[in-house]
Design brief:
The protein is of the alpha+beta class. The chain is 18% helix and 29% strand.
């Protein structure tokens, strides 16, 4: 059984419930391996039962050991390395979470191929594939997660990930907590802007009030869906736009305390798909939002 340090290596013993199950079905349903990863492993004869190569039509028996070795994608070298002194919030053999600062992209784009979070991760782990699990807008701060290989990325796509944000908004919601259920779609002829659209994709945001006064509030948001600009659009349409949101907000006296939208990815939690541990990652409010918080409470 040959593999190198960049390959993905996973094994699982066949349970009584999976006795006489076809190997291909076991790989997908019990091990959570995507069809694309199975095909890549097949190309190298890297699917084994009791350490012997087997075809995916093979019928399994209880107690057998199934092993798959998946060569990671060859796209790792595309991302340039940048020494960015990243603040790592969580790191294990499967996942890494980073505290993203203001003004930094999560991943390279056509016009920016350096000094993104992915470039910084490439510096720390030169041989690792970069597989984003979550993304944030350039000017939103807080937790972003990456999988260290394609199988982990696929398995993370199958689980519930609870994401909480802290936002500071103009005005005050009419009720202290609630749910915004409002479909969102792309604005015609715009690659960036989003808007409320009854025919758009389902978009659900739950919120509760941390602090409130007549002209500003501090809210905790919990996402049920994860559309582009979801919280920002929902806040605008609900009458309490995010402070200093240059796309969806409005000018206010609070703009002097912060130079970007006052939105922070505060907490991410999930059941780890490989260890079954309850993982909870938190990120402290950055200094600009701490200053804005003081201004809201004192003004």
């Amino acid at each position: 059984m040959m593999k190198n340090s960049n390959d993905v290596y996973i094994e699982l013993i066949v349970s009584q419930q999976s006795h006489k199950r076809r190997l291909s079905s076991f790989l997908r349903k019990e091990m959570g391996i995507s069809g694309n990863c199975i095909r890549r492993a097949k190309n190298f004869d890297n699917i084994y039962v009791d350490k012997k190569p087997q075809h995916t039509d093979y019928i399994l028996s209880e107690g057998q050991l199934v092993t798959i070795v998946v060569p990671d994608k060859d796209t790792k070298s595309v991302i340039l390395s940048s020494d960015m002194n990243l603040n790592i919030l969580y790191d294990d053999e499967y996942l890494i979470a980073v505290d993203k600062p203001y003004g930094v992209l999560c991943h390279p784009i056509m016009s920016v191929d350096e000094d993104t979070i992915a470039n910084g991760l490439k510096h720390i782990y030169p041989g690792m594939g970069i597989h984003p699990i979550s993304r944030l807008d350039r000017d939103t701060t807080g937790i972003v997660m990456y999988a260290k290989n394609s199988i982990v990325h696929h398995k993370m796509s199958l689980i519930d990930i609870n994401k909480k944000y802290i936002g500071m908004v103009l005005n005050s919601p009419t009720v202290t907590e609630g749910t915004i259920d409002m479909p969102i779609a792309r604005v015609p002829d715009s690659t960036m802007l989003r808007q409320f659209d009854p025919s758009g994709k389902e978009s659900i945001t739950h919120y509760s009030t941390i602090f409130s006064k007549k002209n500003a509030s501090i809210l905790l948001f919990e996402l049920e869906t994860g559309r582009t600009h979801q919280i920002r659009v929902h806040c605008k349409e609900s009458g309490f736009p995010i402070i200093h949101d240059t796309l969806y907000g409005e000018p206010s006296d609070y703009d002097q305390y912060i130079s970007r939208q006052a939105l922070h990815s505060y907490e991410t939690s999930f059941i780890h798909p490989f260890t079954n541990e309850q993982i909870c990652i938190k990120s402290d409010l950055p200094n600009d939002m701490i200053n804005l918080e003081k201004a809201i409470k004192e003004k």
